[in-house]
């Protein structure tokens, strides 16, 4: 039997909303929770209700701690997960939520103290932009990209005597190697940034 979600007053802080997004994203991607919901563990509550409820109950606890300027320890979050899974999914986690608890505890502390490294790690580099800004920027990038492709096609057609000339397989291999090399360098740079930031 599903119960209405309890109301709570969020902290008056601009980092609260992105923090909520980070908690939701990381928790709803958690493999153990995904399995519990997808496989319908437990018999008392609808799995989707349980999924929303775990996030909501955590946020109530985080909001209280934020307003009282307190830390939330990973052990406390892990114990919350254990109790929640027993009550809602009839399952024993045996500490299986501790890795997620560490991440949530760390990002909570960072946000509460004005740091945003964890938000960037979880939500990406554009975490501070709202969805409308991101959509407008993505549309603009897409339009510019389409215009560049069209311009390149026109330019290629005007400079090639035979527009139907096929690119050789060797040229394709060279282009693919260059693309994969730049992608791996970008991934290495991203990995190094995450290591440098403690994430």
Structure summarized in a few sentences:
This protein is mainly α and about 200 residues long. The protein contains eight helices and no strands.
Can you characterise this structure?
It is a single chain. The protein is 69% helix and 0% strand. The protein contains 8 helices and no strands. Helix 1 (16-28) runs antiparallel to helix 5 (98-112), helix 2 runs antiparallel to helix 3 and helix 4 (74-89) crosses helix 5. The chain starts with 15 loop residues before the first helix and ends with a helix. Residues 162-187 and 189-196 have low confidence and may be disordered.
Indicate the low-confidence ranges by residue numbers. 162-187, 189-196
- Oligomerization: single chain
Mean pLDDT: 77
Structural class: mainly alpha
- Give the terminus-to-terminus CA distance: 39 Å
- Rg over CA atoms, rounded to whole Å, is 24 Å
Largest sheet: none
Write down the overall geometry.
globular
Helix content: 55-70%
Number of distinct helices: 8
H-E order: HHHHHHHH
Give the number of DSSP strands: 0
Task: Bin the strand percentage.
Answer: under 5%
């Amino acid at each position: 039997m599903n119960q209405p979600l309890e109301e709570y007053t969020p902290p008056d802080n601009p980092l609260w909303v992105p923090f909520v997004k980070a908690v939701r994203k990381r928790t709803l991607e958690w493999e153990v929770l995904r399995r519990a919901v997808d496989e319908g563990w437990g018999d008392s509550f609808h799995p989707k209700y349980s999924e929303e409820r775990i996030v909501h109950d955590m946020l109530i606890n985080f909001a209280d701690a934020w307003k009282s300027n307190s830390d939330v320890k990973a052990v406390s979050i892990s114990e919350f997960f254990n109790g929640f899974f027993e009550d809602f999914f009839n399952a024993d986690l045996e500490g299986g939520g501790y890795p997620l608890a560490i991440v949530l505890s760390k990002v909570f502390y960072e946000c509460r103290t004005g740091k945003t490294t964890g938000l960037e790690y979880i939500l990406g580099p554009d975490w501070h932009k709202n969805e409308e800004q991101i959509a407008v920027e993505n549309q603009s990038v897409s339009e510019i990209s389409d215009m560049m492709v069209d311009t390149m096609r026109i330019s290629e057609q005007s400079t090639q005597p035979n527009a139907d000339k096929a690119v050789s397989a060797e040229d394709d291999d060279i282009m693919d190697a260059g693309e994969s090399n730049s992608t791996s360098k970008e991934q290495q740079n991203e990995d190094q940034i995450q290591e440098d930031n403690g994430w």
